[in-house]
Amino acid sequence: MKQLLIFLLFSSLFCWLMFSPVYKHVLVLRQALLQQEADYLLEVGASGRFGYIDAGLIEESKSRLAESGFEPARLQYSVASTSGAEADNAEQPLVRGEGIKLTIRYPYDGLLNIDRLIGLEPSATEPYLSAGGMKMSEYVP
User: Fold this and answer.
1) In this structure, are residues 138 and 45 in contact, taking their beta carbons and an 8 Å threshold?
2) How many structural domains are present in the chain?
3) In whole angstroms, what is the distance from residue 81 CA to residue 92 CA?
């Protein structure tokens, strides 16, 4: 009986050790893709050609992330400026020297549920992956 119990404990621990890193790698990969997309959007939006990040750029971003397995409806974008002006208005782009701040959020999608095997409970509220940054506008009217 003692050997059976030890076998069950070790087999469950072995399964968790084997599959838990896979989920963690998915989490790290999603975080990296979000940060890469945030950096790209900031680079394009703050360029001398734009000076803003509007809904069109966000829709293109959602379609690029959808190709990587993200659900576009669950992506949340937040665009702001350091001066308080609208950073998503194509009619009034931010002039050179004003900062554009961008944050992209995406839910974990239950990736941490496997941790229940070892007794760790995921958060009651749905946690989000978040990526973002800030870049100074280079637009000159």
Assistant:
1) no
2) 1
3) 12
- Among 93, 47, 102, smallest CA distance to 75 is for 102
Q: Rounded distance, CA 87 to CA 137, Å?
A: 10
Coil vs helix vs strand at 76 = strand
Q: Does the residue 109 lie in any domain?
A: yes
| Strand residues in 16-127 grouped as ranges (E) | 76-81, 99-107
Going residue by residue through the chain, which has 141 residues, state the pLDDT in tens, using 9 for 90 and above. Answer: 778 888 888 887 777 677 666 667 778 888 999 999 999 999 998 888 888 899 999 999 999 999 998 999 999 999 999 988 888 888 888 889 899 999 999 998 777 666 676 666 766 666 888 999 999 998 888
Handedness of CA 76, 74, 70, 93 (dihedral sign): negative
Assigned domain for 92 exists: yes
31 inside domain: yes
